[in-house]
Specification:
Blueprint lengths: L7 H7 L40 H13 L4 E5 L2 H9 L7 E5 L4 H11 L5 E5 L4 H5 L6 E7 L11 H10 L3 E5 L4 H4 L9 E5 L13 E5 L2 H14 L5 H11 L2 H20 L4 E5 L9 H7 L6 E6 L4 H10 L4 E2 L9 E3 L11 H6 L7 E4 L5 H12 L1
Helix pairs in contact: 1-2, 2-9, 3-4, 12-14
Bound molecules: pyridoxal-5'-phosphate.
């Protein structure tokens, strides 16, 4: 359905989707097939082999393009497989400017996989866009931004980066996993590629691992599709179905994540054992104005540090919660708690980690959609 003039909730439910042409099924069927019968050589219905194109994945890719206000979508077996495809557009000698405070796995693929193929990565804080511009040279081909950043909740001005990228003929890719397209649409702000770990809010139910890219321009999209088909890191039809279903309630879930997140962030700020609370909704957050401009709300991801900055204290809190679950990942309906220094960010060297603010006592919350009072009571008993 053409939803290009519709609002978000309508796009989430109908964008890019048609009833199944064979049966009229309102839900996109799980086309669990590897191949498609041809009537004669080269005479097929658009589908030849499921690595290249599968109807369930195709529906999801079109739906993702609709909700991100892009033109093309491509889905992969994980968020990292999606990042892998973006970096494979580059050649040895090309340079990437990446935010320094990013998902640990993104750092690991850049440093331990792609550096050895001669791609050069610069890691810098991006809260001040001038720090990015200072690193641009003739070899710079890609700016990699993540906002809000993980786990420090820094905010990067996407429009300012897009201006630098455009002026210097560089691609801008934004990892939009934390914000989701319901809160932030990087393509509208000038980005060329939006990346998602669909494992998180898009799937939303902690039951699937998937990555996605959404592109604006045909040329970039064709290159991504060539890599998707050539390297083959695609996602399967069952997982595509699950994420399609997840997206239908994305706006409802994220509204509640935001409400609960705001209540918990304000509550944490008042607790005597808590040192700093990192959440872009606070007026004293260094880039609160940018967050207000480019996001529609502030999300359900919160980090906080403990007074005294002792690792044992953080370990005690994450061990004592009962309703929050100690686990990696985020963005599901259930609340999760994590300790970045020993979990998601263990692959980043200690000095690098501390430079970006990931201290020993830092705790990260993925606030779910349970009752906020129950979540606060659980944190209260764990902090005590
Ligand atoms: C989880 C995550 C990724 C990696 O995605 P996977 O699906 O786990 O491969 C990348 N970026 C961010 C911000 C994430 O949270």
């Amino acid at each position: 359905m053409d939803t290009s003039k519709s609002k978000f909730a309508t796009k989430a439910i109908h964008g890019g989707l048609e009833p199944d042409p064979a049966t009229g099924a309102i839900m996109t069927p799980i086309y669990q097939t590897s191949t498609y019968i041809q009537d004669g050589v080269g005479n097929h219905k658009g589908y030849e082999y499921s690595r290249t194109l599968n109807p369930t994945r195709d529906a999801l890719e079109k739906n993702l393009a609709a909700i991100e206000n892009g033109n093309y979508g491509a889905c992969f077996g994980s968020g990292l497989a999606a990042i892998d495809a973006v970096i494979k557009m580059l050649n040895p000698g090309d340079e990437v400017i990446s935010t320094n405070d990013l998902y640990g796995g993104s750092y690991r693929i850049f440093k331990t996989i792609f550096e050895k193929y001669g791609i050069v990565f610069h890691f810098t804080p991006m809260a001040n866009p001038a720090d990015v511009e200072a690193l641009v040279n003739d070899n710079t081909k890609l700016i990699w931004a993540e906002t809000p950043t993980n786990p420090m909740m820094n905010i990067i001005d996407i429009e300012a980066l897009a201006a630098i990228a455009k002026k210097n003929n560089i691609l801008l890719a934004v990892d939009n996993t934390f914000a989701t397209p319901y809160l932030q649409r990087p393509i509208d702000l000038g980005a060329d590629i939006v990346m998602h770990s669909a494992t998180k809010y898009l799937g939303g139910h902690s039951d699937v691992v998937m990555g996605a890219l959404i592109m604006k321009d045909e040329e970039v999209a064709n290159e991504i599709y060539r890599i998707q088909n050539s390297s083959g890191g695609v996602t399967g039809p069952m997982d595509s179905f699950l994420v399609l279903r997840g997206i239908k309630t994305l706006h409802l879930r994220v509204q509640r994540h935001c409400e609960n997140g705001a209540k918990i962030a304000h509550w944490l700020k008042e607790q005597p054992s808590v040192d700093k609370v990192f959440w872009p909704g606070f007026e004293d957050h260094p880039n609160h104005d940018v967050a207000k401009r480019q996001m529609d709300d502030f999300g359900g991801m919160i980090s906080f540090s403990m007074k005294g900055n002792k690792m044992e204290d953080a370990h005690r809190v994450v061990a004592n919660v009962k309703l929050f679950s100690l686990a990696e990942s985020l963005g599901g309906v259930e609340s999760l708690i994590g300790h970045p220094a020993t979990m998601t960010h263990a692959s980043i060297p200690k000095e690098e980690r501390e430079k970006s603010g990931v201290s020993d006592s830092l705790i990260r919350l993925s606030v779910g959609v349970e009752d906020a009072d129950d979540l606060i009571a659980d944190l209260a008993q764990a902090l005590a």
